[in-house]
Specification:
Elements lengths: L2 E3 L6 E3 L3 E6 L5 E3 L10 E4 L2 H9 L2 H6 L8 H25 L3 E3 L1 H7 L7 E4 L5 H13 L4 E3 L3 H7 L7 E4 L2 H17 L4
Parallel strand pairs: 7-8
Antiparallel strand pairs: 1-2, 3-4, 3-5, 6-9, 7-9
The chain binds zinc ion.
The site of zinc ion has 8 residues, from β5.
Length: about 190
């Protein structure tokens, strides 16, 4: 386990549980959510308080051993949210390529009663009547669900026109998505 210290709360965690940041050549702090950018990294928990306290206490400049241009906390949190949204859409796209996504109201309703149904995502602008019918079936079948993204965004994530409802039929993809969606909700202050 590769442990790193959160620049905010100073606790150590496996790095996969943390947000990674890098410093660009002009000294600006960037969010590297996927842990891909080269160079020295700094880390925080995926937590609003840890991000705020890393900024307030100069933790980032200490981590990079140089003076860093830190965005305002709100801007940095928006950047984290943007990274999380891309990560989630990317996971949805990967699930689609793996043949693990069912969409379209009728197919979704049929899929939700099968044991393979692992996660339901409902667009925030889905027609309320149909959405309620689909959500009720998910509740009845004990399938976890989230309201997330608009129809346009969900559609383009699976390479189609607008999509109001998606069901994931692969437990591993669904597990990864649920983890990232919960992180997004936490950072966005929704729970
Ligand atoms: Zn922390």
């Amino acid at each position: 386990m590769a442990e790193r210290t959160c620049t905010g709360c100073r606790s150590g965690y496996d790095k996969t549980e943390l947000i990674r940041y890098v410093c660009d050549p002009s000294g600006r702090l960037l969010v590297d959510y996927r842990h891909k950018l080269p160079g020295r990294g700094a880390y925080t928990c995926i937590d609003l308080d840890c991000i705020a306290s890393a900024i307030a206490r100069g933790g980032f400049s200490r981590s990079f051993k140089q003076s860093i241009a830190i965005p305002e906390a709100d801007a940095l949190i928006q950047e984290v949210i943007g990274n999380l949204r891309s990560r989630i859409l990317n996971l949805i796209g990967m699930s689609r390529k793996a043949g693990a996504i069912v969409s379209g109201s009728n197919s979704v309703l049929q899929e939700l009663v099968k044991p393979t149904a692992a996660l339901l995502i409902v667009a925030t602008d889905a027609a309320p009547g149909t959405a309620e019918k689909i959500l009720n079936r998910a509740r009845g079948a004990d399938v976890p669900f989230f309201k997330l993204f608009d129809k346009q965004t969900l559609g383009s994530a699976v390479g189609r026109d607008e999509r109001s409802h998606l069901v994931l039929t692969n437990k591993k993809f669904a597990g990864n998505l649920i983890l990232e969606i919960n992180r997004l909700k936490k950072v966005a202050g929704e729970n």
